[in-house]
Amino acid sequence: MPGGEGIQVDPGGLTRHAVRLDRRTDSLDTSRQAGQHVRFGRRRVGAKGDAGEVPLGALREAVAALRRVPGEPAELAAHLAARYPAVVAAADAARACAEGFLRQRDTGWRLAADELRGWVDAVAGLPEREATLARLKAGRAWLKAGRAWLKAIAVQLRNERWRRSRSTRSGSGRSCGRRATSSWAR
Predict the structure, then answer these.
(1) pTM for the full model?
(2) How many angstroms separate the CA atoms of 101 and 118, rounded?
């Protein structure tokens, strides 16, 4: 402290700290919104004890302590240097907790999304499978009709063959009985 001037504060340093504080405040707001979203979702779904609350209490206390700005410029630098690391640590802890919770939720939804994607793929192929099934049913009906036709033709051929054999036998002038007696007689 040369010449009794007191503590000198670098305006650029204060500006940098203010920018960092704004970033941390934005991060805090994001964490707070995530926490509110989680709490709202819990109330809607009714899940209790699902995942721990995002620890915002320590962050709120650190920010409240940081906002209690001393009146003297010389005390301001010491105040920022003492209180700012606590805000950063609390914001990092809240962010880590929120990220872990969201990652856990994301993993659960990914499993359900994969299963749903499989169902959607199965449904997408359903018209093609139904068309194939319809073709197979039509083919089966065609085969049944063909089989019935073949049976009918086989019956007709058998009957015709039987009639021819009867007519050939009766055309010889001998009956079965006469043939049998004549062959025994020889």
Answers:
(1) 0.35
(2) 26
Round to whole Å and give the CA distance between 47 and 74. Answer: 50
Q: Where are the extended beta strands (E) located within the chain? A: none
How many angstroms separate the Cα of 63 from the Cα of each of 22, 30, 90, 164, 185? 11, 15, 9, 114, 133
Region at 103 (left for phi over 0; alpha for psi -120 to 50; beta for the rest): alpha
Q: What is the pLDDT of residue 119?
A: 82
CB 42 within 8 A of CB 50: yes
Both tokens assigned to 105: 């939720």
Series of mean pLDDT values for 10-residue runs along the chain (186 residues) = 60 74 75 70 47 73 85 81 87 86 75 80 83 86 89 93 84 53 52
From 137, 186, 32, select the one nearest 95 (Cα to Cα). Answer: 32
Q: Who contacts 159 (Cβ-Cβ below 8 Å, separation ≥6)?
A: none
